[in-house]
């Protein structure tokens, strides 16, 4: 008998499991709105042209070898990533108060940051929004932090529960860590306005709460890299400290290359040097050092103004297609006379729409219409196309009537 005979079957991941179920469905009309990855109007994955160009340059450069990177990754990549999120004129960067480590995409950056905080930060409680990306709870709990939630989404208005958010942060213990989605909150698509961000900032700074930004969608939400980083930059502009986890999965389409960065903004250059030395001790026993290919693609694009511009154009095209899907879906529901107020579809931001459909309605749509999405009613707008909108509208209409 196996020594592992007592191992019980684990459930599928609630998000990635949607694609597993989709792949098993033989129906020709099936639609996968569970996957958090961009698809073209033809439903195909997209490799950006500028990424192909950068890869060509890398392949044709004979000086490139496959040596190990340092523990914190590619130096150029780290510098350029910090500039991308904090702004090229950021005083924190100029004053050498930022330490950046290339990590395994957004998830790995969150995990390394969490492990560092669990070891070296005095308050081991992290507040995450309710709801949030399902992996947050596990990443932070497994790193040794105690995970609590703050109110975020109001199902009544399908918008932000701003009062609840402020109350919960106001009653958090001073020094607690607060996870903030930099933009395009997943799964709700609901972001604070700039003036709400300012109030959040003031409250957090007055209580000494430590911001940990998760930036998985910079540029992908509005189509503008600077606009999508505003929340983070407000918190850096006040001279205070924070962490930021960046992912290039969505905005450069580098999903499987696993490219991301963790930055820690410190009060002084002196502190930043010590923090970096401890980040190395976190990373070394975890995976020694990060992979070279994806980070080289990113660095190649970010340091060349021509490639950088091409990237911003391709990025905006992805963001625009998603925004256009929001309008098409909204208009089609209205044209069909589907009961309910669907204006949240065009108000929400980023890759996802939090439809408000409940678990039973989602199960019905999957069973009768072969439409796949997470059970909380979240649909990926990137998985939708002009061709599939009518089918989705039929399904939603049938589910709510
Ligand atoms: N944070 C959020 C909010 C996300 O939506 C995602 C991607 N689904 C991630 C982090 C991390 O993704 P990755 O590890 O692929 O960069």
Automatic annotation (TrEMBL):
Catalysed reactions, as listed in the record: L-aspartate + 2-oxoglutarate = oxaloacetate + L-glutamate
EC number(s) recorded for this UniProt protein: 2.6.1.1
Alphabetized Pfam families for the sequence: Aminotran_1_2
GO cellular component: a single term: mitochondrion
Residues in Aminotransferase class I/classII large domain copies: 30-396
Cofactor(s) this protein cannot do without: pyridoxal 5'-phosphate
Family: Belongs to the class-I pyridoxal-phosphate-dependent aminotransferase family.
Name of this chain's protein: Aspartate aminotransferase
Organism: Iris pallida (Sweet iris)
